[in-house]
Amino acid sequence: MSKSQKLFNESKKVIPSGVNSPVRYFEPYPFFAKKSNGAYIWDEDNQRYIDFCNGYGALLLGHRRKEVLSAVSKQLTQGTMFCTPTQSEIELSKLIVSNFPSIQKVRLVNTGGEATMTAIRLARGFTKKKKIIKFEGCYHGAHDSVLVKAGSGSAHNGISVSDGGLDEVSKNTLVVQYNNSEELERIISKNKDIAGVIVEPILANMGLILPEKNFLSEIRKITKDNDVPLIFDEVVTGFRISPGGAQQHFRIKPDITTLAKALGSGFAVAAVGGKKEIMDLLSPGGKVYQASTYAGNPTSVSAAIASIKTINKIKNKLYSKLEKYNIMLTHAIDDIATDLKIPHQINFTSSMFQIFFTDKPVVDYISSMNADAKKFKKMFSILLKNGVFIAPSQFEVVFLSDAHTKTDLENTINAYDVALKSVKN
């Protein structure tokens, strides 16, 4: 029996289902991580994997990036927690504002879920209205307002609305089909109580689903025309798509933005930012309450500052390299699957991709759900046995990092070759 299996048996006795987040579980048991470095992660049995899960997108710069660890180590000698303002919080906020032109002021929080929860509360406080519109398959955290037809682990486990959620909360969440701006416009025109629209500009929690041409600009126009705040959930895409996120790439200015993951390079830090007149509603200056003991934690803030500075310094090489590597990898996988006559679609952009086992384009929640998840599960297992770790769910994304090398890509392509042949059989 492997160490991971023994640890999982032990874990189930004290942790619900043996894991602290649903997407970490896979059959027959998840491996237990021991260490990581660069593009690699090792389990308790000392098996090394090329890591394409990458902290679900957080590790844009790879594991244990030296600039980040150096900044954190320096901060640790000065203290881990103060619960008073620090100069570093100002520095980080200025960096975020300079990278995201739509953000005039920003408040630091701890997680992406906390950021989206605050963003929605701000939209309601600003408009004095109740209803929120989200898009089917978009995942905005595990809180009641957005855990309705959500992606990520919710979709993976077949949970459309979570038990324990309040009907009176979820009834104020209206769900629209992704890539369907006409439906959005129709729903807004019929409801005068819309407080805001929240969307992943690139849907990265339902596999990878890209916005169709003009979809995001149409959302922006519709929300502007109806005085409805637009929230871009850039928890995944912030810094990963470009230094200014998906909004820089698509040249769209939302009213509110949420950031996390690549912001902190593996440290727990997130942010919600936006227009001054909206952000100034936050307490204590305003009446929209938000608070957190760990917000602005100096250790996490130091990691985020180092992350953004490193990204800005190497951005001219970083994003072109990642896109080049992604094209190499996805084209090779596509060729293998095509030669094997396996019905498939590969959606990719920047440093993210996902393969779906279906003969129809994947453009929304329904088409993603219609892909063959059993084949994906089999492919995942074979990839893992061949030293490649991707997220275990069809409804997640494969992430590249700056730490990946051409040799890693070659080994990964070989692993996909073996895995796809097993899927065909």
Automatic annotation (TrEMBL):
GO molecular function per UniProt: glutamate-1-semialdehyde 2,1-aminomutase activity; pyridoxal phosphate binding; transaminase activity
Superkingdom as given in the UniProt entry: Archaea
Assigned GO CC terms: cytoplasm
Residues with PTM N6-(pyridoxal phosphate)lysine: K261
Reaction(s) this enzyme catalyzes, per UniProt: (S)-4-amino-5-oxopentanoate = 5-aminolevulinate
InterPro entries associated with the record: 4pyrrol_synth_GluAld_NH2Trfase, Aminotrans_3, Aminotrans_3_PPA_site, PyrdxlP-dep_Trfase, PyrdxlP-dep_Trfase_major, PyrdxlP-dep_Trfase_small
Co-factor(s): pyridoxal 5'-phosphate
Pathway, per record: Porphyrin-containing compound metabolism; protoporphyrin-IX biosynthesis; 5-aminolevulinate from L-glutamyl-tRNA(Glu): step 2/2
EC primary class: isomerase
GO biological process: protoporphyrinogen IX biosynthetic process
Subcellular location: Cytoplasm
Record Pfam families: Aminotran_3 (PF00202)
Main subcellular location of this protein, as a coarse class: cytoplasm
PROSITE patterns in the cross-refs: AA_TRANSFER_CLASS_3
Key words of the record: Cytoplasm, Isomerase, Porphyrin biosynthesis, Pyridoxal phosphate
Keyword Cytoplasm: yes
EC number: 5.4.3.8
Transmembrane segments: none
Cited PANTHER family: GLUTAMATE-1-SEMIALDEHYDE 2,1-AMINOMUTASE, GLUTAMATE-1-SEMIALDEHYDE 2,1-AMINOMUTASE 1, CHLOROPLASTIC-RELATED
Similarity section: Belongs to the class-III pyridoxal-phosphate-dependent aminotransferase family. HemL subfamily.
HAMAP family: HemL_aminotrans_3
Protein name: Glutamate-1-semialdehyde 2,1-aminomutase
